[in-house]
Amino acid sequence: MPTPKSMASHRGFSLTDLMLGVMFTGSILAILFGYALPQYRQYINDTLVTAAIQQANPYMKTIAICNQTWPPQSCIPGNNGIPPVSNEANGTSISTTLASPSDNFIIALTVSPEGTFHSPSSHQYLTYRYLGQNQWIMSCHNDNIIEPDLCASDAVTQSSLWNGKADGSF
Fold this sequence. Notes:
This protein is an alpha+beta fold. 38% of the residues lie in helices and 21% in strands. The protein has one domain. It has helices at residues 4-8, 15-69, 154-157, and strands spanning 93-99, 106-112, 118-119, 122-132, 135-142. The radius of gyration is 27 Å and the shape is rod-shaped. The chain crosses the membrane at residues 12-37.
């Protein structure tokens, strides 16, 4: 049984006890951050891609409606009820192009989420091709296979419009 004199000399924690506690807590936090940070980055990237896809939807709908009445050459942003392109919302860049292989015009809508997907070293984008009768197909393009990969985003891979190709081809 401890005597009152020995109890008086053992107040609080020793420096070794404190160091062990700090090291243990630090290692637990490092493990948690090691798991949580990549998950958080993936969540942010999926959110950017989802926002870009959502921003493309009004263009896809109005282009399909326009194409029922007008020739494809007339179905570009700013004409025949199609909203003009605004690259300010969500930082997403949207453009449309008309390709004319033989005499069949193809309407392509290109969506490029900003932020981590659009930098001087990487240009990643989604291209939607109008197939007619309100049907679209989506292709994903990644210039450099770097992280984060737009084509590996859940918003792309789980889309019913995606053609499964990451090279930008249809």
